[in-house]
Amino acid sequence: MQELISRVENLTGITMNHTTSLVMIFGIIFLTAIIIHIILHRIVLRTLEKHASAHLWLQIITQNKLFHRLAFTLQGIIVNIQAALWLHKGSEAAGVLTTCAQLWIMVYALLSLFSLLDVILNLSQKLPAASQLPLKGIFQGIKLISAILVGILIISLLIGQSPAILISGLGAMAAVLMLVFKDPILGLVAGIQLSANDMLKLGDWLEMPKYGADGAVTDIGLTTVKVRNWDNTITTIPTWSLVSDSFKNWSGMSASGGRRIKRSINIDVTSIHFLDEEEQQRLRQAHLLKPYLETRHQEILLWNSQLDAPASALNHRQMTNIGTFRAYLNEYLRNHPRIRKDMTLMVRQLAPDDFGLPIEIYAFTSTVVWLEYESIQADIFDHIFAVVEEFGLRIHQTPTGSDIRTLAGAFQRQSS
């Protein structure tokens, strides 16, 4: 550069002092930076943006400003090279310009890394396998570590000390740093565990009563997991709590293709009795019950014929209305078009209590869609409530105010 200044002095016949030559060098560097900026941002980047719509990966890169930040990083590198070539090494002007250029390079290199991670995250969400991994939390952890390292480099550059001195000094502040960055550190470890053990993915149905969460996972971050509840509210859960506490993931149910029905009705035990011949003949008209009744009738006749005992309900076997009712429900479910036959299907009795004898329906629907599931379940129990009287059974129901008023009115009429 000094040779160029000497040639200019010989051609113009003007002797330049140090300040004038310094201004000239800075002007050339500034002019070069402007020209490179125009070429990169007005020509190269605009050309890429025009062709971005034709390629998904190029569109994602453009949206995350990766090329813009790389262009700014390249401009800083060029300015730093010019300062090293054209200015005297060790001079104050060279030190200031080099320091500014290096700070520029580190900041935009860090932002470029952030953009690159965002591009990888967005591209991974387009792939079925990678989209289910909690990569966002891991990438946020990488961003945090990178920002800390670049911050250390910036401070060391400004104070003129080696980064090793600052890093060694951080050992004394480890306890403070662990306290300040406790949630990010725990979240990073939890995110790795969630990914490695396939515990949670985006879109999973998560239920965690401790935090009032019951809905679909919409975001898995470094420190928080967001759940959109079924009432459209958003619950934010600390990421580390998914490892330290228990939660229910309904993704297995969704993947199986069948959702469980597990609901019972309470039968009034005073309505349970043996079936007489007339009731058996009437129930044989039901095509679902006819095979059962005939097989059961022959079995009971054979048993009773071999029994050498007086005819008594205590000695002989008979069919009950509650047992026949269970057999009917079992056949009804097995013939239902929306009930899975390859999964557990049963009608069972539970322990009787103050509310009667519970008869539980345990089956799986052929769909996991919530609206369809509720409709199937409601249709089944609508039918059960409607046919229970055909078996001479009654549903237990706690007396209501209307029942008490009716009973009181009956007593009044009798007394009058």
TrEMBL record:
* One Gene Ontology molecular-function label: mechanosensitive monoatomic ion channel activity
| UniProt main location, coarse | membrane
Kindly give the membrane topology term recorded for this protein: Multi-pass membrane protein
Keywords, sorted A to Z: Cell inner membrane, Cell membrane, Membrane, Stress response, Transmembrane, Transmembrane helix
Q: Where in the cell is it found?
A: Cell inner membrane
Q: Which residues cross the membrane?
A: 20-45, 66-87, 93-117, 138-159, 165-181
Would you tell me the Gene Ontology cellular component terms?
plasma membrane
Q: Which GO terms describe its biological process?
A: cellular response to osmotic stress
Q: Does the keyword Transmembrane helix apply?
A: yes
Domain annotation Mechanosensitive ion channel MscS C-terminal: ranges = 327-395
Name any one Pfam family assigned in the record.
Answer: MS_channel_2nd
Q: Which domain of life is it from?
A: Bacteria
The protein's matches in InterPro entries, at most eight in alphabetical order, are given as: LSM_dom_sf, MS_channel_C, MscS_beta-dom_sf, MscS_channel_2nd, MscS_channel_C_sf, YbdG
Q: Which residues form the Mechanosensitive ion channel MscS domain?
A: 183-251
Family of this protein: Belongs to the MscS (TC 1.A.23) family.
What protein am I looking at?
Mechanosensing system component YbdG
